[in-house]
Amino acid sequence: MKILLIHGLSRTPLSLLGLEQFLQQTGLATEQFSYFAVTETFDRIVERLRIRLQALASQGTYGIVAHSLGGLLTRVALGLGAIKLPQHIVMLGTPNQLPRLAPHAWQLLPPFRWWTGQCGFNLTDPSFFASLPKMRSPYTIVAGTGGYRGFLSPFGDELNDGIVALSETRLSDRDLLVQLPVMHTFMMNDFNVQKIVGQAFGHEN
């Protein structure tokens, strides 16, 4: 089986190197998919991902590990149809519901608007989330709980990873989330997160 790793918004494939090396040590073959939101639209990235997934599927069984926005790119690309579905998808901190911090960042931080483009705007748009395709492959959601909670937190007392609230990672109320005390940006470097990813594809380390 080959695993495709997809990084999050404002990150690069370098962010997933540690996880990639861990998966390779368990015997899994890996590839990375790269994008750059400041120079590409969300739709263009999705189209490139669709083509990549079709090529990967033609080679045999495959899986996907997607951090943050990478999970949304995956859902949309697979929803375009005519692609053999992955055996399993692991989403790391993906906001499957509209993330409450995104509209504030879009309104208050002009650099965020410039840097993230259509990808960033989609994170603020309820209609975008309402249009997301349902998942048709088995999946695992890893949600971080290491974010600050309390009076000064934008999340109040709700569990969060500093960027995405626990509730925002769910696709449905039936989801059994894997909750770990990690932060959003670097969760893929946590050994326990890496173990969960390996186990999702039938490998232990």
Explain the overall architecture:
This protein is of the alpha/beta class. It has one domain (2-200): Rossmann fold (3-Layer(aba) Sandwich). Helices cover 35% and strands 14% of the residues. It is built from 7 helices and 6 strands. Helix 3 (69-79) links the parallel strand 3 and strand 4 (89-92). Helix 2 crosses helix 3 (69-79) and helix 4 crosses helix 5 (110-122). The longest helix has 16 residues, at 42-57.
> Taking strands numbered 1, 2, ... along the chain, how are they ordered across the largest sheet?
2-1-3-4-5-6
Instruction: Kindly give the count of domains.
Output: 1
**CATH superfamily name?**
Alpha/Beta hydrolase fold, catalytic domain
CATH-defined architecture? 3-Layer(aba) Sandwich
Number of helical elements: 7
Tally the beta strands. 6
CATH class: Alpha Beta
End-to-end CA span:
17 Å
Largest sheet: 6 strands, parallel
Radius of gyration: 16 Å
Shape: globular
What is the CATH topology assignment? Rossmann fold
Query: Strand-and-helix sequence, N→C?
Result: EHEHEHEHHHEEH
pLDDT averaged residue by residue? 95
Decide which structural class fits the backbone.
alpha/beta
Low-confidence stretches: none
* Helical residues, percent: 25-40%
